[in-house]
Amino acid sequence: MPLTTPPRPPRPFDTPSAPTFSTAQRSAQARNKPYNLSDKKAAEIDARRYEERIKREQAARILESSEMLIWYSNARNESIPQTRQYFQNIVWGFEEDESGVVWREEWDGEGVGVGSPRSAKGKEKERERGKKRVGSGKYVGV
C-alpha cells in the first residue's frame, strides 16, 4: 500500500491578493511607464511623445544631409532655406502650422506695375549724399 499524503490547504500568503498583470503590463511597469490600461490618456501622451521624438530625429537627419535637404526642398516646391527653416522648426519643437505661412516669391508684387522698392527721388537723394561725403580730404563717391 503506497503512502500518500493529502494535499495541503492553501496558505493565506499563497493566494493572489494583488491583481495579476499581463506580460505587457509587467514590461511597462519595469520601464517605469504607465501600466494601468484604464489610464488611456497617459498612454496617448507617451505615444505622442514618442512620435514627436521620432519626427525630430528624422528632421535632424535631413538637416545633416545636404542631399536629403535638396530632395525635400524639391519635393515641397520650396527653396532650400525655406525647407531648412521648416525642418529646424521641427527639431526645435515649434508648431508646424503651415497654413499660416505665406512664402512670397521675389517676383510677386503688392500691386500692378510694382518696380523697385526705392523711388527715383530716393536714389537721387542718396547720390547727392554720397557726393557730399568727404573722408580725410578725399572725395568719396558712390
Automatic annotation (TrEMBL):
Top-rank lineage group of the source organism = Eukaryota
Which parts of this chain are annotated as the region Disordered? 1-37, 109-142
Polar residues composition-biased segments: 21-30
Biased composition, class Pro residues, residue ranges: 1-13
Q: What is this protein called?
A: Uncharacterized protein
Organism this protein belongs to: Ophiobolus disseminans
